[in-house]
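COMPLEX REQUEST
Ligand: nicotinamide-adenine-dinucleotide
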Amino acid sequence: MTVTTKTALVTGAAGFIGSHLVDKLLEKRIRVIGVDNLSAGKEEFLSLAMVNDRFEFHRLDLLEDDLTDILGGVDAVYHLAANPDVRSGSLDTRPHFDQNILATYMLLESCRKANVSKFVFASTSTVYGEVDVMPTPEDYGPLLPISIYGASKLACEAMVSAYSHQYNMRSVIFRFANVVGPRSTHNVLHDFIRKLRENPNQLEILGAEPGTSKSYIHVSDTVSGILTGSEKAENLVEVYNIGSRDWTFVKDIANIVVNKMSLKEVIFNWTGGVNGGGWVGDVRKMLLSTKKLEKLGWVPELTSSEAVELATMDILSE
Ligand SMILES: NC(=O)c1ccc[n+]([C@@H]2O[C@H](COP(=O)([O-])OP(=O)(O)OC[C@H]3O[C@@H](n4cnc5c(N)ncnc54)[C@H](O)[C@@H]3O)[C@@H](O)[C@H]2O)c1
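STATUS: Structure written out below.
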C-alpha cells in the first residue's frame, strides 16, 4: 500500500545524506521539517532548502529537546541523525550509545506520543558483521556486528521494529553500504586526499594490501533508494539494503585518488591493519544483495568505482 507523505521530518537534515534527502523531498513538493544540532552538519548544506517555502529548520538536539510538538501533523519521520563514525567506537564507546541508541529511543517516544504513522531509519551494512554469504541478503542471520557502531544501529533497528508492532507505526529500515558524494565530510577519500596533499610522494593506508573489499554507493543512488523503499514498502516493518552491485578494494580507491590528483609513482605504505581489516571493528568484506529494493524498481546507476571516482572529483573541486 502506497501512502502519500505530505509532511516529513528529517533528523540529521544538515548532514551529508540528510541534506540530499531534504532536497529530494522538497523536489517532490513534500513539506519538510529539518532537525539537526549542527554538531557535524552544516547549515550551508541546506542553502537550497532554506529558500524553499515548504522547508523549515530547527536547530535541536535529540538528546536534549522534546520533538513531540513539532511532530504534530508529520506523516513520516526520516531518522538520519547519528554518530556515524565507525572507527571512533573502539576508543570511546559512550557516544554511539548516546547518539545512536538513546537518541533513537527518545525520538521513537516522541513519535509514539505524536501518533506518527511512518518511521524511516538509516541503518548500516555493519549490522551484518563478518558474513559467509555474499551478496548478503536482508534476511541473513544471526546478526553479529563487530563494531560498537554496528551494534548500536542493530539495537536501534530492534527498537524501531518493536515500536512499529506495539504502536502500529509503519517502519522502513535501510542498511547502507559506504555512501560517498558531495557534502561528505569524513571517509577514506577525504583521508587519502588530505594525506596526499601533505605528501604527494607516499600514502599511508590502514590495513594489508590490497585492503578491505566493500561496496560503495553514490549519495544520489542512496537517496533514490530511500525514496523508492519508503514509498513502496508493503509490510509493517520492512528492511532494505542499499548498495551498488559490486565492490572495490582499498588499493583501487587509492589508485583512483592518485590518478584524479594527477600524481605519479606514489609509494603505498600499508600499516598491516587489525584482523585483516584496517582497524579494530573494520569488516573485511561487504557486498549487499539489493534484489529486494530492485524489485520495487530502484536501480543503482553507478558501480562502486564510478561512485568513488565521481566523489573524488567532487572533493578535489571543493
Ligand atoms: N555515510 C555513510 O557511509 C553511512 C553508511 C551507513 C549508514 N549511515 C547512516 O546514515 C545516517 C547519515 O549519515 P551521514 O554520513 O550523513 O552522517 P553526518 O554526520 O553527515 O550526518 C548526521 C547528522 O546528524 C546530526 N546529529 C548528530 N547527533 C545529533 C543529535 N543528537 N541531535 C540532532 N542532530 C544530530 C549531525 O549534526 C549531522 O548533521 C547516519 O544515521 C549514519 O549512521 C551512513
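REMARKS: The pocket of nicotinamide-adenine-dinucleotide is lined by residues 11-12, 14-18, 36-41, 61-63, 80-82, 84, 99, 103, 122, 124, 176, 178-179 (CB under 6 Å). The domain at 7-179+216-242 is CATH 3.40.50.720 (Rossmann fold).
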